[in-house]
Design brief:
Helix content: 40-55%
Strand content: 15-25%
Order of helices and strands: EHEHEHEHEHHHEHEEHEEHEE
Largest sheet: 5 strands, parallel
Radius of gyration: 34 Å
Number of helices: 10
Distance between the termini: 69 Å
Structural class: alpha/beta
Strand order of the largest sheet: 2-1-3-4-5
């Protein structure tokens, strides 16, 4: 069976059922002239045979009283045969309408009731409305079938992501042995679980709503489902990246111009994340950092993503390059400051680590991408820190030992 949407460019196929051949022929000729594809038959038995053989029949116009079977029983039989995939509407015609006939028509789910004699224009108008209803029912069935396929695909992908999550968390858990490492690993697992479970929960919730039949809101649930899958897939990618960062030796450190790398990272982020103002370092700000170039680029990318994920729409992301002292050493630092729209830029705090502001909001900045960036930097002897001020500013600071 096909789940394709109905082709509205094709003439609607209508079946006229009347035991009087001359009446049926006259009506079909008029309907053909009005743009329909009209067929005629003269008994309920013949009509049912045509309904079985021709799923394209979308409306049946039947006399209510015929020898060997009345139009209302025919309507009930047709509607029992046809599912919504090949939805059909029934219009009954009578020359002796009674209240009981009308009540029976309603009980039989007849969509319209024409009383003889009627003008062709009246029949055409009733038919067009019936065709529109039947086509909408068929289209709704096709959309639901398509939604079901998306649901099954989404559930399969969700289950696969769940399996990968279990395997990845086992690998992460096996990396730490001593007490300090176990505590650090628990923090990692918490971040991993949060990053994956949040979109997976959205996937499951959308699946439940789709299964329940959410009507006109289905496209929204399909969008949520797809976004959840995308986010979960990205989280799995970051977990795998974290495992690579944990397991590999530090790469070869070479001098890199941090300013040039940062400007390219911000340019790419601006193209993919509209709605923010990204400010590169001030003119003349630059510094040479000794670090693997790929590692430094990726750490910058993930830190910018973490800042923008936290930032409110319309915020400015400032970036600063400085060589600062702390802990008896010099540090090459990149500081990102999130400034809400209309707010005043804050003063930059000293290094090496951003001061704790006593706000639980600071943890909201520490996404899974943030965690991966921090581990990449730690492999080079650096660190990544964050804080949130009471004025709604957010700060992230990337620091590497300055040995340039």
């Amino acid at each position: 069976m096909s789940d394709a949407l109905p082709d509205l460019s094709e003439p609607a196929t209508v079946l006229v059922v009347d035991d009087e051949a001359a009446v049926a022929a006259q009506l079909t000729e008029g309907l053909e002239a009005a743009g329909f594809r009209a067929l005629a038959c003269h008994s309920a038995t013949e009509a049912l045979e045509l309904i079985r053989a021709m799923p394209e029949i979308i409306v049946v116009m039947s006399d209510i009283r015929m020898p060997g079977g009345d139009g209302l029983q025919l309507a009930r039989d047709i509607l029992a045969m046809r599912g919504e995939e090949h939805a059909v509407e029934i219009i009954v015609i009578t020359g002796h309408a009674t209240v009981e006939d009308a009540a029976s028509a309603v009980r039989s789910r007849v969509s319209d009731f024409l009383r003889k004699p009627f003008r062709l224009a009246t029949a055409v108008s009733a038919l067009r409305q019936a065709v529109a209803r039947a086509r909408e029912r068929r289209a709704q069935h096709a959309r639901q079938a398509q939604m079901t396929r998306h649901l099954l695909d989404g559930e399969a992908r969700r289950e696969e992501l769940d399996r990968r999550l279990a395997a990845l968390t086992e690998r992460l858990a096996a990396m730490g042995e001593d007490g300090h490492a176990k505590v650090a690993m628990q923090d990692k697992l918490h971040a991993v679980s949060h990053a994956l479970r949040t979109p997976l929960n959205a996937i499951s919730a959308s699946a439940d709503l789709l299964q329940a039949g959410a009507g006109r809101a289905e496209p929204d649930y399909q969008r949520i489902l797809q976004e959840g899958i995308t986010e979960a897939s990205r989280a799995v990618q970051l977990v795998e990246e974290l495992i690579i960062a944990e397991g590999r030796m530090a790469g070869e450190a070479r001098p890199s111009e941090a300013g040039a790398l940062l400007r390219r990272v911000l340019e790419r982020a601006g193209a993919t994340r509209p709605g923010f103002r990204l400010e590169p370092p001030a003119e003349g700000q630059d510094m040479t950092v000794r670090a693997p170039r790929d590692m430094l680029t990726r750490a910058l990318e993930l830190t910018v993503e973490a800042a923008l994920d936290w930032a409110p729409r319309g915020a400015t992301l400032q970036s600063h390059l400085e060589v600062l002292g702390g802990d008896g050493r010099e540090w090459a630092c990149v500081t990102f400051v999130v400034i809400p729209a209309g707010a005043t830029p804050p003063a930059l705090p000293p290094l090496p680590v951003l001061p704790a502001q006593g706000s639980s909001l600071s943890r909201n900045m520490e996404s899974l991408g943030y965690l991966v960036a921090r581990r990449l930097l730690e492999r080079q002897g650096g660190h990544l820190s964050s804080c949130v001020t009471g004025l709604g500013h957010g700060m992230l600071r990337l620091a590497l030992p300055n040995s340039a």
